[in-house]
Write a structure and sequence with these properties.
single chain; about 0% strand; about 55% helix; 3 helices; mainly alpha
Length: about 70
């Protein structure tokens, strides 16, 4: 079975920011600044892809909670 190979690119960030991230990831599971930055960016992109919670959604949830007796 052939394994899909990830391709990478280089992104430049200011050195002071790099050093702050380097300090932040000490004693975490991240092995590099690149792995941490990749994780953070994936989280941000995933949040943006989620559908927003609409007013209609809120009304349905509140109605259901009222029906269950959790709110008045």
């Amino acid at each position: 079975m052939k394994r899909k190979q990830n391709k990478f690119t280089t992104v430049s960030i200011p050195t002071p920011l790099f050093k702050k991230v380097e300090e932040r990831i000490k004693e975490t599971g991240f092995t590099s600044v690149s792995s941490y930055v990749t994780y953070v960016l994936r989280e941000i992109v995933a949040e943006e892809e989620e559908e927003p919670f609409t007013k209609e959604d809120e009304k349905r949830v509140k109605a259901r909670l009222r029906a269950l007796g959790y709110i008045d």
